[in-house]
Specification:
By secondary structure, the protein is α/β, with parallel strands linked by helices. The chain folds into 2 domains: 153 residues, P-loop containing nucleotide triphosphate hydrolases (Rossmann fold), CATH 3.40.50; 63 residues, no CATH class. Helices cover 38% and strands 28% of the residues. It is built from 10 helices and 10 strands. The protein has a 6-stranded mixed β-sheet, sandwiched between helices. The chain has a 4-stranded antiparallel β-sheet with strand order 2-1-4-5, with helices on one face. A hairpin with a 2-residue loop joins strand 4 and strand 5. Helix 3 runs parallel beside helix 6. The longest helix has 14 residues. The radius of gyration is 17 Å and the shape is globular. The chain starts with a strand and ends with a helix. Bound molecules: adenosine-5'-triphosphate.
Length: 232
């Protein structure tokens, strides 16, 4: 279980999260919904140490994670796919993927995961030798997700995977999210597209100006008048 308790966090002197509580049990898909600037990305950033916590705690299975580095988070099994995707544009699709598995060293399991991921993302198989920057937006998002999965993370944090993509590609990406979620891969999904997010999620939180204002089962959130009014 990944848990955030009374987390205050932000950048420099600026506090963005004002006492946030959130729990992501293993095997679940949890979504964090909210308007622009509410603090969704900052929540993910705080988990991997890209935003500083000034109070509260972040724990994975009861062991503190607070104010670590993204590298430490990854070693603990938490991978972030940032909104900007952060691919190495000049490097091939294949090399970007291999970089994702670097922490695991060279092993048969890594080679097998490489092949398995290309089955999950057939568009990437067709473009293995192409520089990442020549991919379409949707393909780049797929590559960013696949690269994160090469580390075989227990927790995958996804920041707005649908952003700026055509509806057909968004559907494709959400199908993939459905397929990779499960016992071995827990997902915390930040989304502007609440309807879509609540279709794949088990549980959801609504964040407003750095605080959780509403939470519940995905079905309950979909049915809630307040959530429908603001986000659906
Ligand atoms: P969006 O969908 O627009 O990304 P969000 O809910 O993810 O919204 P955050 O990105 O967490 O919101 O931003 C919350 C606040 O923190 C905003 O006021 C933003 O300007 C500020 N902020 C975000 N990143 C930084 C940063 N690196 N340095 C300083 N302030 C930041």
């Amino acid at each position: 279980m990944l848990s955030l308790r009374n987390v205050r966090a932000g950048y420099g002197g600026k506090e963005v999260l004002h006492g946030l509580n959130l729990a992501v049990p293993r095997g679940a898909v949890v979504t964090l919904l909210g308007a622009n600037g509410a603090g969704k990305s900052t929540t993910l950033n705080a988990i991997v140490g890209l935003a500083r916590c000034s109070d509260g705690s972040i724990e994975l299975d009861g062991v503190p994670l607070t104010n670590g580095t993204p590298d430490q988070a990854l070693r603990r099994g938490i991978a972030l796919v940032a909104e900007q995707r952060e691919l190495f544009g000049g490097m091939s699709v294949s090399d970007n993927l291999r970089l994702g598995g670097l922490l695991r060293g060279r092993s048969r399991a890594v080679a097998e995961d490489f092949e398995k991921l290309l089955d999950t993302f057939p568009r990437l198989r067709e473009r293995l030798a192409q520089p990442a920057r020549t991919l379409s937006g949707g393909e780049q998002q797929m590559l960013a997700i696949a690269r994160a999965l090469m580390a075989r993370p227990a927790y995958l944090l996804l920041d707005e995977p649908s952003l700026g993509l055509a509806p057909r590609i968004v559907d494709e990406i959400f199908d993939i999210i459905r397929r990779i979620s499960g016992e071995d891969t827990t997902i915390l999904l930040v989304e502007q597209n609440a309807m879509l997010a609540l279709e794949v999620a088990d549980y959801g939180y609504v964040i407003e100006t750095g605080e959780i204002t509403f939470e519940g089962d995905a079905d309950a959130l979909r049915g809630s008048a307040a959530v429908q009014e603001s986000y659906l």
